[in-house]
Amino acid sequence: MNTGQIISGAGHLAVIGWALFGGAFRADPPPAVVVEAVAVSQAEYAALMARHSAPEAVANVDTPEPPSPGEEAPALSPSPDRAPDASRPETSATPPPDPAPAVPARPAPTEVTDAAPAQSAPPEETAALVPEVSPRPQPRPAPRIAPEPVAPPAPDTRVDDVARPETTPEEGAAEAQEPQDATAPEEAATEIVPEAERPRDPAPTTSLRPRTRPAQPAPAPAPAPDLAPDSAPVETATRPAPPQEAPTPPATDREAVTDALAAALGQGTPAPSRPAGPPLTAGEKDALRVAVQRCWNVGSLSSEALATTVVVGVKMLETGKPDVASIRMLSHSGGSATAARQAYEAARRAIIRCGNDGFDLPPEKYAQWRDIEMTFNPEKMRIK
Amino acid sequence: MRSLLTLLAALTLWAVPATAQTQGGPLRLELTEGVIEPLPFAVPDLVAESTQASDFATRIARVIAQDLSGTGLFREIPAEAHIGRITSFDSPVEFADWRAINAQALVTGSVSVDGAGRLVVKFRIHDVFAGQELGRGQQLVGDADGWRRIAHKVADQVYSRITGEGGYFDSRVVFVSESGPKDQRAKRLAIMDYDGANLRYLTDAATIVLAPRFSPTGDRVLYTSYETGFPRIYLLDVANVGRRVLPTIDGTMSFAPRFSPDGRTVVYSLTQNGNTDLYTMDIASGASTRLTTAPSIETAPSYSPDGSRIVFESDRSGTPQLYIMDARGGEAQRISFGQGRYGTPVWSPRGDLIAFTKQAKGRFHIGVMRLDGSEERLLTASFLDEGPTWAPNGRVIMFTRETQGAQGEARLYSVDITGRNLKQVPTTGGASDPAWSPLQD
Q1: Contact B348, B306 (CB under 8 A)
Q2: Please, what is the Cα angle at B403 between B398 and B409, to 5 degrees?
Q3: Which residues pair with A164 in a beta bridge?
Q4: Long-range contacts for A321-328 (Cβ within 8 Å, ≥24 apart)?
Q5: How are strands ordered across the β-sheet holding B288-290?
């Protein structure tokens, strides 16, 4: 046992002993409350107590003495009472004349004019009532008339088979011109509501939930550096430049890859091709789809044709217009050949009609939309 | 390094076909939502090739246009909007002129009178935006008195070529013409073109007549008459208005007749001893065969187009419902299960639908359902709609609609099986119980 342990043991024992016997575990006495006391004498104490004691009952009460008899009653006399003297007015033979009343002097006549006197409304009596609750402050009315004049709303376009813009006679024209109202064909419906299902109250009772946002399109892959070496394609309204010869890649490993791809695809030397550009974005595809659907009229198709899906191929010109001669039916399903022909003709009309002015397609991506296959599936519009 | 890249490229080729289809192939789109609107068309006056034919050139064109527009599937572009002029039947069409007014279909034609005084009508159908003719030109020849039928036939061809289904314009309707107050209404059989033209009465108003039905060839009519005090079935020849009563058992009531598809048999209801069942009768021999023996009421039978089955109305379940059974009788299968009462079923000429009258929640409906009762669709709703009949092409239904009140009157209406194009059929006075004929020869 070394010295450190001894010292430690002694220290611990000392602490424990102090804790046990030194009063470390003894509670402190409660603090004393000091109250001031005043010494009073017995007489003062009795006086204090007598003031607070109940009054004692009085046994003997002095009774008041009875009243003494008063004076005697007056004797009654039989003589009647004398009438009181009445003063009479003096009379005269001729009454004195009444004094003439004093006539006031007539005022001078004033000039009368035809003008009506100004009528002043009497001031209304208003009671100054103090409301118990102060009224809410009225919002200041907003001006109901726009501070600046605006043009009147355009009149409703007249329904007609042909869409014509509104024309007005030109000033200074040599020939007389007749004004013409704007016309537009009647809007089409996208669904059929039979009479039995038509709501009696046209007001909608529920609102449709907004359509879900289409899925985020996958980011377009970056163009390969060997196909678009200069820069990323820029969307311009001009026609794409004529295809340029692909730059000759250096004899590197890239060449080996190209050769391998060409060999695997059964091709010889890869033919130089114009830049295809990035693929159409989902928005561009949707725009084209919507543009064609707008003219895809299935209202005159038979039930069987409405159950027929046709795939139509079309070659597009660089102007965005379809090459009408190239429109062809690639395949059909769900109906007979006759029904497929009707469905195809409706699809062809849609492509030609709405492509008459050219579809809004990015010219720099012409290679992506030069050949299009459209599947016309009328499943959602089918007559069940 | 070179060999490694080559190997990598070779492995990549497994994915190349799919990638090439999407990146190197044509752009692929799927269209699922088009528009439903009448197809704009133009019918300029036919080219009159003789002075005698000039009067018909306009009238025939008008009837063609009215037929097509009346379907609700087509919309005529009026002549005032036409830019192009058709001056010769054989000259090429300037499609740009018709494209400019948004005409998608164009009908051109000519009319002439041959040596026998008959009308000769030639016509062509054009797809304006495709700039080509739809099918080949056709020619019709007929009497001048039948110029409306010629126009109807042209319209049938146009309708069939564009929609892909048969037309129904060259057809007739037999119905019960009504006149007089509601409690003393006079009824007689009448026949007219489907559009209300060429009205002709087949019977007088001396007795009550009900439920006329065309034969499959359209030359005969079955109907029920109270001429003897009891309802009896009569067979009428449309051409000479000759009629005869079909044989029946004394003391019974026979009604609700309908021809079989071959025209040789009649299926009808017969009430005997307070019970109503279905029977068939061979028209030639008059021999009857009982089809049902239920204690309930079986009535309103209608054959399927192939004649193998019969749809009818029965209250054997407690309320009137629709049942289908074999044409020779036997076990019937219930097909209507909706709320309400079902009656007057009629089998579609296409064979795919059953038209019926339904009463539910105080209103009457004309509806259609599949043969198994599925896909029930109510097309109309009013105070009283009843008695549907199919157009020959199975696309349109005509029925009776009666208005409410003491001054209420029955009229004929038609509606597309899609529920569109509900409209009144023009008739002279009240009309009920229509039956649509097949297309005329």
Answers
A1: no
A2: 80
A3: A183
A4: A321/A355, A321/A356, A321/A357, A321/A358, A321/A359, A322/A351, A322/A352, A322/A355, A322/A359, A324/A352, A324/B130, A324/B131, A327/A351, A327/A352
A5: B253-259, B265-272, B275-282, B288-290
The minimum CA-CA distance between A301 and chain B, rounded to whole Å, is 5
User: Using CA atoms, how far apart are residues A25 and B409, in angstroms rounded to an integer?
Assistant: 113
With a CB cutoff of 8 Å and minimum separation 6, the contacts of B248 are B232, B233, B254, B270, B288
Closest among B144, B88, B92 to B120, alpha carbons compared: B144
Q: Which residues pair with B386 in a beta bridge?
A: B400
Q: What token pair was written down for A345?
A: 């003709």
CA-CA distance, B38 to B193, in Å (whole number)?
24
User: Residue ranges of chain B with pLDDT lower than 70?
Assistant: 1-24
Cα B72 to Cα B381: distance, rounded to the nearest angstrom: 19
Q: Which of B13, B22, B32 to mutate to test the interface with A (most CBs of A within 10 A)?
A: B32
- Cα separation, B350 vs B370, in Å, equals 12
Positive or negative torsion for Cα B159, B162, B163, B164: positive
Residue of chain A nearest B20, judged by CA positions: A265
Are A374 and B31 an interchain contact pair (Cβ–Cβ within 8 Å)?
yes
Residue among A195, A311, A314, A330 with most chain B CBs within 10 A, to mutate: A195
> pLDDT tier at A251 (50, 70, 90 boundaries)?
very low
Mean pLDDT of chain A: 67
Q: Between chain A and chain B, how many beta carbons pairs sit less than 8 Å apart? A: 203
> Using the beta-carbon criterion (under 8 Å), do B30 and A352 form an inter-chain contact?
no
**Taking CB atoms and an 8 Å cutoff, what residues of chain B touch A379?**
32
Burial A357-369, CB ≥16 within 10 A → b, else e: eebebbbbbbbbb
Q: Which chain B residues are closer than 8 Å to A304 by Cβ?
A: 164-165
Looking at residue B22, what DSSP letter applies?
I
Question: In chain A, which among 216-255 make CB contacts under 8 A with chain B?
Answer: 253
pLDDT band at A46 (very low <50, low <70, confident <90, very high): confident
Do B314 and B323 contact (CB within 8 A), yes or no?
A: yes
Q: Is B245 helix (H, G, I), strand (E, B) or coil?
A: strand
Angle CA B271–B273–B276, to nearest 5: 30
The answer to whether the Cβ–Cβ distance between A375 and B31 falls below 8 Å is yes
CA neighbours closer than 13 Å in the CB half-sphere of residue A274: 12
pTM of the model: 0.66
Distance from the B7 Cα atom to the nearest Cα atom in chain A, whole angstroms: 9
Give phi and psi for B177, each to the nearest 5. Answer: -85, 130
**Nearest by CB to A297, which of B2, B10, B39?**
B39
Residues of chain A found within 8 Å of residue B8, distances taken between Cβ atoms: 257
Take residue A103 and report the two structure tokens written for it. 């006539």
Partner-chain contact B418 A195, CB within 8 Å: no
Nearest to A384 among B134, B367, B375 (CB): B375
Q: What pLDDT does residue A356 have?
A: 87
- Which residues in chain B are closer than 8 Å to A257, comparing Cβ atoms? 5-6, 8-9
The whole-angstrom distance between B46's CA and the closest CA on chain A is 21
Residue B77's CB is within 10 A of a number of other CB atoms, namely: 24
Tens-place pLDDT, residues B158-177: 999 999 889 999 999 999 99
CB atoms within 10 A of CB B19: 11
Smallest Cα distance from B415 to chain A, Å: 9
A300 Cβ under 8 Å from any chain B Cβ: yes
Say which range, A23-27, A49-53, A92-96, B385-389, has the weakest mean pLDDT: A92-96
A369, closest residue in chain B (CA to CA): B27
Q: Give the C-alpha separation, B234 to B218, whole Å.
A: 15
CB B398 within 8 A of CB B424: no
